[in-house]
Design goal:
Largest sheet: 7 strands, parallel
Number of helices: 9
Structural class: alpha/beta
GO molecular function, one term: electron transfer activity
Order of helices and strands: EEEHEHEHEHEEEEEEEHEHEHEHEH
Helix content: 25-40%
Organism: Sediminibacillus halophilus
Distance between the termini: 49 Å
Shape: globular
Pfam families: ETF, ETF_alpha
Bound molecules: flavin-adenine dinucleotide
Number of strands: 17
Strand content: 25-35%
Protein name: Electron transfer flavoprotein alpha subunit
Family: Belongs to the ETF alpha-subunit/FixB family.
Radius of gyration: 21 Å
Length: 322
């Protein structure tokens, strides 16, 4: 059975987030040969982003431009996307499992009186249905789900499904849809950005994470250096955040960010279950810990038993020579 699929694109600082392209790749499986439509909502100037969605695999794109969509509000975006769903009547809607995806999709699924399969890490065709795999119990198990009735809402975990190759020769229509947006109960008046240098943690291919074993704010310096030579980002355990060695925005785990980089280097992190919940799906895990019994070694692909302050500088030297 083929399906018409709508992808809700997401931007940050005026550019499409990678997870949008990954959602288009996921939509290829969901659509089973049906039409894939990219959707992008914002204040103005969205056509180049809509075309980019086509370059990454959408058949055509829709833009909704409105002054009330300058910044994300669940109310404003739910009205805009809801209107497009009413008009286009897609059989499935796919979006990234990001802060915005987690906020917007349940609201829309409730409005259209249907279900939502969130945080999908794998999907495969299975007869008339698509079989979605998602982690449960903080990543200790996986469940497989299908939806047999109603519009299918899906969010996909960033960094799990590879985007299709960009093909700038792909063409498709870009249509603007006018949407009435009523008074919003929440209005964003100002955004105060945290200054974060370098690569975005949730989309990083390499993460160097520090725990309480890093011992101080300055102790994170070699981790930043290692992350830089690897083109990655720095993360942390809650232990390190609680000890004020770094900002909570770096926290990975059950109550922090969920990440799935290609390479995760855990430095001075014991491997508590709540930390593993946020990183155990990383493709390759390296543990650096001076305690050979540390739990991190139970899930690590490579373990280095040693003092992180001796091991990391050696790693940096070796990598610089490659
Ligand atoms: P520790 O457990 O103290 O481990 C430090 C490690 O560093 C040790 O293994 C030690 O051997 C090693 N070490 C010390 N010095 C060195 C050195 N010089 N070189 C190499 N290794 C060294 N935690 C999270 O991380 N994320 C979460 O989202 C999260 N959510 C939670 C939610 C709840 C409800 C609860 C109850 C807890 C949560 N926690 C979370 C906390 C979690 O249980 C652990 O307390 C925390 O992960 C421990 O952090 P840590 O590994 O950095 O510290």
């Amino acid at each position: 059975m083929s399906r018409k699929v709508l992808i809700i694109g997401e931007t940050r600082d005026g550019v499409l987030r990678n997870v949008t392209f990954e959602a288009i790749a996921a939509a290829k499986t969901v659509s089973n040969g049906g039409e894939i439509i990219g959707l992008i909502c914002g204040e103005s100037g969205l056509n180049p982003l809509a075309e980019q969605m086509i370059h990454f695999g959408a058949d055509r794109s829709i833009v909704v431009e409105h002054s009330k969509l300058e910044t994300y509000t669940s109310e404003g975006f739910a009205q805009a996307v809801g209107r497009v769903i009413e008009q286009e009547k897609p059989e499935a809607i796919v979006m990234g499992h990001t802060a915005i995806g987690k906020d917007l999709t349940p609201k829309l699924a409730a409005r259209f009186e249907t279900g939502l399969i969130s945080d999908v890490t794998e999907l495969e065709e299975g007869g008339d249905n698509v079989v979605f795999t998602r982690p449960i119990y903080s990543g200790k198990a996986f469940e497989k789900k299908i939806i047999t009735d109603g519009i299918l809402f899906v969010t996909i975990r960033p960094n799990n499904i590879s985007a299709l190759d960009k093909d700038t020769s792909r063409t498709g229509d870009v249509t603007a849809i006018d949407v009435e947006i009523g008074d919003l109960r929440t209005v964003i008046t100002d955004i105060i950005k945290k200054t974060a240098d370098g690569v975005d943690l949730s989309e990083a291919k390499v993460i160097v994470a520090g725990g309480r074993g890093v011992k101080s704010k300055e102790g994170f310096d070699p981790l930043y250096e290692l992350a830089e030579v690897l083109g990655g980002a720095v993360g942390a355990s809650r232990g390190a955040c609680d000890a004020d060695y770094c900002d909570y925005s770096l926290q990975i785990g059950q109550t922090g960010k969920v990440v799935t980089p290609d390479l995760y280097i855990a430095c001075g992190i014991s491997g508590a279950i709540q930390h593993l919940a946020g990183m155990s799906n990383s493709k390759v895990i390296v543990g650096i810990n001076k305690d050979p019994e540390a739990n991190i070694f139970n899930i690590a692909d490579y373990g280095i038993v040693g003092d992180l302050f001796e091991v990391i500088p050696q790693l940096i030297e070796e990598i610089k020579q490659v």
